[in-house]
Amino acid sequence: VAHTLHYAGGQWDRADRIRRDTDELQRLWQSPDTRWLPVFKANNLIAGNAAVMRTRAELEQTGLSHDGGTFLGLDNKGALFSVECDEQQAHAWRKLQVGSEFVDLRAVGSSMSTDEACLLGYARALSHWQTQNRYCGVCGGLNTLTAGGHVTQCSNVDCQRQVFPRTDPAVIMLVERIDAQGQRSCLLGRTASWPEGVYSTLAGFVEPGESLEDAVVREVAEEAGIAVRDVRYCASQPWPFPQSIMLGFVATAVDDDIVIDTHELEDARWFSESELPLFGDWGDQAPGFKLPRTDSIARFLIDSWLADAKG
Amino acid sequence: VAHTLHYAGGQWDRADRIRRDTDELQRLWQSPDTRWLPVFKANNLIAGNAAVMRTRAELEQTGLSHDGGTFLGLDNKGALFSVECDEQQAHAWRKLQVGSEFVDLRAVGSSMSTDEACLLGYARALSHWQTQNRYCGVCGGLNTLTAGGHVTQCSNVDCQRQVFPRTDPAVIMLVERIDAQGQRSCLLGRTASWPEGVYSTLAGFVEPGESLEDAVVREVAEEAGIAVRDVRYCASQPWPFPQSIMLGFVATAVDDDIVIDTHELEDARWFSESELPLFGDWGDQAPGFKLPRTDSIARFLIDSWLADAKG
């Protein structure tokens, strides 16, 4: 799969070898080329459509000082660290650049470059994971961060359990059927919390003890009562909202009759390949059917499936 | 991908709708058709190559009583629950059947049926996740189990944070190159902890903020210093030892010269398609090169690649 989806394909070097090299981390914290990116309550700082990042010298002018932080890697200018801010630090960061705001990446990421959206998603995901793991799950002891922010370690000397960042795999699938006349249609559903008229591909988390393909079959059966065959992988996309990776598939329906799980879905329907091009976009104010957001793998699956029809 | 790998493809119904139906769970605990499977220190109870499971009536004969447990789903005989045992309960369970033993599924799973190996892997994974999440990571409060054992909830009324089972996505990839004469070879490596002579495909955990394809490129570069293109998905396999899912790929090398990361690998080499059929099996006592274990996706990737050559 050559296609790079949004929030993926970051071109900086994660340089994992440096994470455990405390001397090198110390040196990078002092380097004039190192830049910090702030995270405040899971939000990233942007100005216009660009990430705000600053060197030590720039930060010291405003009284901000971030010794340490989470090591994100190296780009062509030097090292990158993210830092978790408190209220006061967030205020100081905002004053560094006119028009900068802490925003939910999910709301603005689609208008950013893929590389910066990926970097900010990475920073946000690590920050979220750190805030969710302040205490040890085994003994309740206080965790400390180590390995440049990429490992938590329990401070209880009888425990010392280490935990690594968590990413939850989720499958997302376009289910197609082809009728006796060769007309193709696909199964899309909606949840009540989405904007009016939006329909999208079904999705769900992978459970322990199942393959991705098992999860696709199970989720489509659970949510829509449809059996599927020929489960084919298409693409994957990190979705750090807060901690998923989306694994995209196409599958072929064996049944026609939809029976939705009303706990999961408000509605699900078959839409023909001739209906979908008439749909509006997520965010459109006009009434009527709408496609999922343009930066999502759901949209990529639908667009690819429509393009296949033409090709 | 039609192939079902070991530890996947379980044919029972996980029946997730029942997890939150406390009345139905109560009813199933009383049902004469319900069976329990014990887990003791992450080990499963087997006799011969079969899982040991027992009804309430059978358990009561030996003084064992398991009210509750983790809901695994429904098979054609009724409901299935797993239970975490203490030392005394484990002893009572072993006495229920001559020759039964608590064993590490990883050591014996390949000789079991795919369906039972998958069920025991599921039980083991949920048990591991529960033991690793006794306390809340956000506030340090004591967690309680809910939703039939599939959700932890913090008992601190100011927190009440819920957490779902964790599965870590990992990529595993066969890297191939084709020389000027059309001779195909693939990149295999070994870690010092493996049996002498075993070489296998490279692998590594997916990090936050990257796609599966990003992770394949990064891991091969980190571990072997090789750049790859044309990253193609092949298959996936749950690997509950303790909590991974393996996502299998083939990729094409752009470089030839291997530079290993000595923190990760002891050695890595190119092996030609004519050399690999001469390899022994994991577990063979004779010296010489050996392939990875037969129940692994690593072996599936290698076998599929060799079969492609012949086809």
Question: How would you explain this protein's 3D organization?
Answer:
Two copies of one chain form a homodimer. Helices cover 25% and strands 31% of the residues of chain A. Chain A is an alpha+beta fold and 311 residues long. In chain A, a hairpin with a 2-residue loop joins β1 and β2 (43-47). The longest helix of chain A is centred in the middle third of the chain and has 18 residues, at 114-131.
How do you describe this structure in short?
The structure is a homodimer of 311-residue chains. Chain A is an alpha+beta fold and 311 residues long. Helices cover 25% and strands 31% of the residues of chain A.
Q: Helix/strand-derived class of chain A?
A: alpha+beta
Largest sheet of chain A: 7 strands, mixed
The radius of gyration of chain A is 22 Å
Distance between the termini of chain A: 17 Å
Q: What average pLDDT do the residues of chain A reach?
A: 95
Count all strands of chain A and give the number: 18
Helix content of chain A: 10-25%
Greatest interface and its participating residue counts = A-B, 62 and 62 residues
